[in-house]
Write a sequence for this structure.
């Protein structure tokens, strides 16, 4: 039987841009739109032309995408004609394939917020759809507050949706603007709407205020809707929008949906989902959610010894889908509860051959446990675990020695009379018979140390040129005078590979130094640098 087409609409660049702390540049928007296009998203909403210079510029040039590139904006203002509304005119002039209008669908909002009549609001919807159609654009209507509006006055909410559909809008999108509607309510209301408007013209736009935006999206699909709106990583104001990164694999991998629907995302694109999700975080300069379904670092991680040995025998026993189907990896955590089977499984995963009764495995387990009692957390630092394992097994060359480092932090008044803090690090490194001294300034002691350390590693320099630090996290353990600092550093290389290293010490600089050294040496081992 032929599968039905289900459409995906991404609003990361419009609704997602409302997220606290997110501010996209034009370059960000173009890069993210490119990622979404490659993923196979049907509609990418780029922004609100006329509302800010970035979005106006974005829509000032015709963009070459496969996706239907969509501009967002308001329907004509009450009391004006469509041709006499500058906002609408700007929207119609935008170089977009489609226009998504937003209009109120709750009679209370029409009266109180818009201060107009119900009939004038319907006329505004009809006129705006008509004007965009006349410009040759595909038209969508976001019905704002649809579910709350429907509960208050179902006849009027439906009339707003119907006005757009009857005027030729391709999609009528039902928005749960406040995000408080529950899945069973969504299912009931969408089913009612689909009696008046065919489901293949109905979309769902859910917000995550009860942590059910994804569930609400699926509830709408079950009731007949055939377009899902959402954002990458669930970006969006307050608690976010429906997370497409969770929705896509569920549609692709769960038979209830995959046997019924086709979406624009191919199996090959699905394998890059984790990478896409992480690339967005990187652009936003924020750490990825380790516990994100499907794509998080912990999504396929197992801790207890009993599970680890079962996973080694048959991975499917503890996994609901195959990790590589979404571009993720299975991970067996090395932890305080670790048994030998965890250690062996983890060694196998990172490609180190070891025999079960090798006495060095017992020693490695001892060292891991000892270090975890003083604050190391190897489950969060895969690369440091690998370095510890390789050192215990005797396979890490002694590439170089840091014989001395010195960090100087100085606060003073500069020539402009401003108070500035300047940090300078000097590092002495011995590579073979060569002694080298490097100095670098940084915006803080760790940054300066990192720069100086990586400035000149002699014959190893070429292996670490593509290395960069992407995240740095500090935690103080124990508290009081016994406090120790745990530093986690996330690094990335020119191939887009990520790894995390750890350092623990009463001194934050020393802890950072350990984590930096592990990261550099990990990179040298990984690149096959000669001893
Ligand atoms: Zn929204």
């Amino acid at each position: 039987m032929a599968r039905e087409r289900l459409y995906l609409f991404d609003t990361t660049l419009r609704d997602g841009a409302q997220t606290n702390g997110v501010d996209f540049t034009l370059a960000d928007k173009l890069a993210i739109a490119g990622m979404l296009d490659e993923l196979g998203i049907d509609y990418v909403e780029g922004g609100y032309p006329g509302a800010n210079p970035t979005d106006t510029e974005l829509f000032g040039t015709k963009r070459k995408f496969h996706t239907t590139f969509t501009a967002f904006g308001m329907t004509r203002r009450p009391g004006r004609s469509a041709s006499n509304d500058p906002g609408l005119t700007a929207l119609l002039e935008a170089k977009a394939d489609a226009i998504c209008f937003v209009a109120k669908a709750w009679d209370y909002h029409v009266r109180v917020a818009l201060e107009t009549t119900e009939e004038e609001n319907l006329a505004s919807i009809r006129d705006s759809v008509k004007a965009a159609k006349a410009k040759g654009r595909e038209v969508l209507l976001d019905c704002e507050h649809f579910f709350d509006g429907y509960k208050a006055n179902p006849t009027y909410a439906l009339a707003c949706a119907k006005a757009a559909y009857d005027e030729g809008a391709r999609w009528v999108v039902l928005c749960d603007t406040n995000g408080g509607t529950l899945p069973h309510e969504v299912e009931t209301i969408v089913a009612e709407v689909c009696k008046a408007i065919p489901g293949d013209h109905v979309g769902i736009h859910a917000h995550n205020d009860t942590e059910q935006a994804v569930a609400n999206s699926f509830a709408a699909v079950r009731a007949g809707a055939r377009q899902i709106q959402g954002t990458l990583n669930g970006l969006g104001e307050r608690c976010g929008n429906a997370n497409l990164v969770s929705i896509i694999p569920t549609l692709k991998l769960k038979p209830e949906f995959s046997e019924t629907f086709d979406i624009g995302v191919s199996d090959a694109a699905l394998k890059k989902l984790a990478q896409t999700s992480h690339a967005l975080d990187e652009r936003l300069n924020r750490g990825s959610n380790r516990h994100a379904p499907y794509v998080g670092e912990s999504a396929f991680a197992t801790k207890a010894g009993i599970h680890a040995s079962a996973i080694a025998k048959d991975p499917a026993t503890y996994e609901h889908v195959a990790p590589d189907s979404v571009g993720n990896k299975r991970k067996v955590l090395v932890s305080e509860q670790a048994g030998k089977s965890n250690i062996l499984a983890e060694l196998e995963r990172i490609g180190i051959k070891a025999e079960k009764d090798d006495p060095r495995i017992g020693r490695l387990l001892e060292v891991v446990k000892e270090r975890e009692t003083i604050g190391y957390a190897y489950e969060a630092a895969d690369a440091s675990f690998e370095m510890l394992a390789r050192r215990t097994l005797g396979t890490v060359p002694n590439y170089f020695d840091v014989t001395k480092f010195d960090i100087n932090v100085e606060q003073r008044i500069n020539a402009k009379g401003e108070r500035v803090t300047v940090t300078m690090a000097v590092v002495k490194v011995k590579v073979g018979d060569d002694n080298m001294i490097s100095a670098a300034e940084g915006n803080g002691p760790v940054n300066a140390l990192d720069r100086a350390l990586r400035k000149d590693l002699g014959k190893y320099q070429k292996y670490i040129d593509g290395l960069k630090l992407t995240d740095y996290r500090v935690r103080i353990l124990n508290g009081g005078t016994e406090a120790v600092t745990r530093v986690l550093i996330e690094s990335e290389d020119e191939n887009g590979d990520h790894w995390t290293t750890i350092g623990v010490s009463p001194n934050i600089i020393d802890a950072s130094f350990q984590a930096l050294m592990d990261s550099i040496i990990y990179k040298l081992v990984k690149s096959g640098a000669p001893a």
User: Anything to note?
Assistant: The chain has a mean pLDDT of 92.
